[in-house]
Amino acid sequence: MNRLTIVILAAGQGTRMKSDLPKPLHRAAGKPLCEWAMMASAPLTDKKPVLVVGNGEDLVRAHFGDRVEYAIQSERKGTGHAALMAKPFFKDSEGLVMIIAGDMPLLTRETLKNVYDAASRDDVVGALLCAKVDDPTGYGRLVTNYEGYASKIVEEKDASADVLKINKVNASVYCIKAQPLLESLENLSTDNAQGEYYLTDIVEMLSEKGERIVPVLTDAAECIGVNDRKQLNDVSKILYGRKCDQMMAAGATLISPESTFVCWDATVENDVTIYPNVMIQGPTVIKKGATIFPNCRIKNSVICEGATVEQSVVIDTVVGKNTTVGPFAYLRPGSEIGENCRIGDFVELKNSQIGDGTKVSHLTYIGDAEVGKNTNVGCGVVFVNYNGKDKFKTTVGDNCFIGCNTNLIAPVTLGNGVYTAAGSTITKDVPDDSLAIARSQQTIKQGWKKYRKDQP
Ligand code: UD1
Ligand code: CA
Would you tell me how many other CB atoms lie within 10 Å of the CB of residue 300? Predict the structure, then answer.
């Protein structure tokens, strides 16, 4: 198993994307295009995949780090030249090399496994993936010999009228024994309509030597390559749709799968209900029985059993069991909310812990704080954590009652059972079970109206 080398071609210009971002980093259903092929091929080997990069190399490296090996193609001379750049990673291999175009995010694990299995036969040199399509425009056409093995691939620009009629096309996945592959790659020429080193030419070279290449047929829908934004959207829809199908099969209710966008890495447990217009990103976990009402964005977060989130943005946050969030809450990174809490409308939380049973019902900002259990934070409370230069922490104990429109000027600590009078600006620590009042006394100027200068 360890002998398989995966090579993903991702050095193309991606001109038709009309973008400053290199094509392999454009996201389909939340993941960079070339990462889909990486994921689908990962179970076949424990070697890191080799990513052939060129255009925008720095950005690609910044994204993938050391999860992959890099082969650099500094000039775009065609797919055959790109594959040859990965030579250092398979030149001494006695095993197979699987080359995959990095712009085909719909390829599945099963399909790549089928190609690998076919290529593993002792009587063949390798296998390639192909599909029967209604409209073969733009694809290389696959020509087979009398035994049914691949004998050549003809690129559209080089094809005769007869060949153009072939509707079996090359899907750009090849799995070939390393040494014969290397020999063919090193002998490619640019003698073709586009003046490029075509990877596809290895098929005819090997076939002419009497080697057999098995064509593995797959569904045409799996072979959509992404060359422009329209195709990016087409594949994204299909990938999000696959995730929705998977979630429903696992017992989630989706009110509108067409407007439910859940990234591949997210986990949605059974008896979760997701309403329309929801986007769930990153490795988020939505636990059993949680409900996500319309118009939410939830990223890298955990929503625990029975919790509800409505019209809110939740990022890098844990929402405890049976807690309700929103409508219109903004939970920013680093927050952890306990069980049975209420985080209501226009509440913003950042890097804060909220204990079980605590209620923050409306119009409040809590930043860099630790709030205990069963505390009530009134309307319009501001945890003043920033003095324009540094940020400070606020601690509030259990069973407190923070009056409406209180400012807690950090650093400040309130013990357990503390009350603050509405409108207070609290600058000093408050001991357990005390009431803090920090506001000016009300004065009444009786009959003042008649002294007013601009009398109406
Ligand atoms: C290629 C195939 C074609 C097949 C089609 C399927 C060749 C010559 N043709 O055509 O038979 O039907 O895919 O989608 O291979 N790349 C590099 N360096 C280069 C050129 C390309 O890394 O110099 C990468 C691209 O980033 C891309 C992949 O190779 O991920 C395929 O290149 P692309 O130009 O899209 O090939 P197609 O014209 O689609
Ligand atoms: Ca392509």
Answer: 17
CB 322 within 8 A of CB 307: yes
DSSP letter (8 states) at residue 140: P
Domains and CATH numbers, the chain: 4-223 (3.90.550.10), 249-436 (2.160.10.10)
Supply the pTM of this predicted model.
0.91
Q: What is the pLDDT of residues 275-331, one digit of tens each?
A: 999 999 999 999 999 999 999 999 999 999 999 999 999 999 999 999 999 999 999
Tell me the C-alpha to C-alpha distance, in Å, between residue 352 and each of 368, 370, 398, 418.
Answer: 5, 6, 15, 19
Q: How many Å lie between the centroid of ligand 1 and the Cα of residue 101?
A: 6
| pLDDT-flagged residues of the chain (< 50) | 1
Q: What's the rounded Cα separation, in Å, for the pair 226 and 43?
A: 24
Instruction: Choose which residue among 104, 157, 172, 190 to substitute to test ligand 1 binding: the one with the highest number of ligand atoms within 8 A of its C-beta.
Output: 172
Residues 6+ apart with CB under 8 A from 258: none
Q: Which helix (H) or strand (E) holds 99?
A: strand 96-101
Residue 46 corresponds to which tokens in the numbers above?
Answer: 């424990």
Residue 1 confidence (pLDDT):
46
Ligand 1 atom nearest the C-alpha of 80 is: 15
Question: How high is the pLDDT of residue 13?
Answer: 81
Q: Which ligand is nearest to the CA of 224?
A: 1
**What is the predicted pLDDT for the residue at 2?**
54
CB 7 within 8 A of CB 52: yes
Residue-wise pLDDT for 199-241, tens only, equals: 999 999 999 999 999 999 999 999 988 999 999 999 999 999 9
Angle between helices 178-186 and 201-208 (to 10 degrees): 110
434: tokens are: 């005390």
Could you list the beta-strand ranges (E) of 311-384.
313-315, 317-319, 324-325, 330-331, 335-337, 342-350, 353-354, 359-367, 369-371, 376-377, 382-384
pLDDT at 456: 63
Give pLDDT, residue 455. 66
Q: Is the CB of 212 under 6 A from ligand 1?
A: no
- Asked if 59 contacts 259 with a C-beta cutoff of 8 angstroms, the reply is no
Atom of ligand 1 nearest to the CA of 34: 30
- Catalytic residue numbers read 362
Ligand 1 atom closest to residue 14's alpha carbon, by position in its atom list: 26
Backbone angles phi, psi at 255, to 5 degrees: -70, -35
Q: Contact, 439 vs 425, CB < 8 A?
A: yes
Q: Is 317 in the pocket of ligand 1 (CB under 6 A)?
A: no
Query: Helix 33-41 and helix 109-119: axis angle, to 10°?
Result: 50
Contact 9 CB / ligand 1 (< 6 Å): yes
